[in-house]
Amino acid sequence: MNLLMLSGDTSVARGREGAFESMLRRFSQYWERIDILTPRAPGASERTLHGNVFIHPSPRHRLMQPFFIRERGAALLAERSYALISSHDFGFFYNGIGAAWLSRQTGVPYVSEIHHVEGYPRAVTARERLYRAIAPLYIRYAAKRAAAFRAVNAVEVPALLRQLGVPDEKILVLPSLYIDFDVFRPLSDEHRYYDVAFVGRLVANKGLFTLLDAIAQVKQTRPDVRLGILGRGPLEKPLRERIAALGLSANVDVHTDTLLQEDVVRFYNSAAMLVCASTAEGGPRVTVEAMACGVPVISTPVGVMPELIKGGRNGLLFQWDAAELTSKIALLLNDEDQRRRIGEAGRAAVQPFQADAVIERYARGYQELAKRLGTATTALAAVPPPTVEPPPDAAPPEQLDAQDDLPANDDGSA
Fold first, then answer.
1. How far apart are CA 79 and CA 73, in angstroms?
2. How far apart are CA 260 and CA 406, in angstroms?
3. Where are the beta strands (DSSP E) in 141-286?
């Protein structure tokens, strides 16, 4: 089978190794050929990966991406047959619009991949509010045109799709979050340096100011509390200003350097816990990476977190409130045995995220869908769309730059 993929991730078109390239290395083994159409980007060019993955970046502005998809896609379809068109859909949904046009023109079914909706469940910037408002318009449009929707978690995205009129039979739960457990693991020789760790881009949806407010409250009873932040992004200056204003300069370290994978693993292992205070996420991958390292996680109920963290046994959830976060940080800091139990249970809970298994489910799910759609009059048509239970965001890159999304963009997910 051949697959035509529409991606917003331009890393492979620029010759960069990382999450997307790593995923394709495994994913390509299940297909005769994969063609990937990407937007224009500096340094992007036609490339071939792994012998059977062909990258086609657009020469035009991103606003013209639907037209590029329709034209270049039609040319590729004139050369060979494709089982499916898969479209990673987000933002202004250029890929999804192009996929719908191309599918209607050629008759090849397309799958709309919704890794997450920016600003959902909570929007904190004007951009996120705009994207959250656009998403229902696209999803309702695609509900009548797409053969299926791929959801990468089993709770948050499917609930949104159903709310917007997508029938259950069109929702495929095929996780995209996977981990290399040979890399992300507990390190017995690593000493605890930070009480709390944060890893990710320094952007509005990460809830950094909520985390800082909580640390300031924890400091009232633990003056020596230490927070380590690993990341880079547009909020770096406001973040440092807030740290100073809260009197936390001696308590918080901000690391913005480019780090190798092993450095990130050591960073996780150097902390008593990791906090994710995000308002919207596709994964988040960092929480699962930390759990794979045996580090307890406190997270908001975003992405896969509500389905993965159960009853405080393998992690803790909080509802975006600094006071609630403060109490949960204090709870773990004051109880070493509970930290150990949660860390061990968390590591056990993420074992289904093993990379090879998750990517195989992804590929097999699409292949089964293609067979079902291609033989609608046979008994195979009665087989329900494949689903994969919870687990599930991107492969670990060869090198992590804190400028990138630590984790990488969802585009690079499985």
1. 10
2. 12
3. 148-151, 171-173, 196-199, 227-230, 252-255, 259-260, 274-276
Structure tokens at 104: 């209607």
From the number of C-beta atoms within 10 Å of its C-beta (0-12, 13-18, 19+), residue 48 rates as: exposed
Is there a contact between 110 and 103 (Cβ–Cβ < 8 Å)? Answer: yes
- For the chain, list the domains and their CATH numbers: 2-178+354-412 (3.40.50.2000), 196-351 (3.40.50.2000)
User: What token pair was written down for 344?
Assistant: 């061990």
- Distance from C-alpha of 272 to C-alpha of 193, rounded to nearest angstrom: 8
> Which residues on adjacent β-strands are paired with residue 332?
none
Burial class (CB in 10 A: 0-12, 13-18, 19+), 21: buried
The predicted pLDDT at position 401 comes to 37
Q: How far apart are CA 187 and CA 296, in angstroms?
A: 14
- Rounded Cα distance, 185 and 165, in Å: 41
DSSP 194: B
Structure tokens at 84: 């499916």
Tokens of 371: 């067979």
In which residue are the tokens 């292949």 written?
A: 367
pLDDT confidence tier of residue 226, bands split at 50, 70 and 90: very high
- In whole angstroms, give the CA distance from residue 116 to residue 304: 11
Q: Which has more confidence, 183 or 404?
A: 183
Q: How far apart are CA 127 and CA 199, in angstroms?
A: 23
Smallest CA-to-CA distance from 292 within 385, 364, 185 is with: 185
CA 411 to each of CA 36, 174, 244: distance values in angstroms, whole numbers, following the listed order: 12, 14, 35
Give the number of other CB atoms < 10 A from CB of residue 133.
11
Phi, psi values for residue 255, rounded to 5°: -105, 120
Cα angle: 125, vertex 284, 144; to 5 degrees: 75
Average pLDDT, the chain: 89
| pLDDT tens per residue, range 8-36 | 999 999 999 888 998 999 999 999 999 99
What pTM does this model have? 0.83
pLDDT tens digits for range 324-368? 999 999 999 999 999 999 999 999 999 999 999 999 999 999 999
Say how far apart CA 239 and CA 212 lie, in whole Å: 9
Q: Find the length of the chain.
A: 414
Residue indicated by tokens 């709310």: 163
Residues β-bridged to residue 38: 57
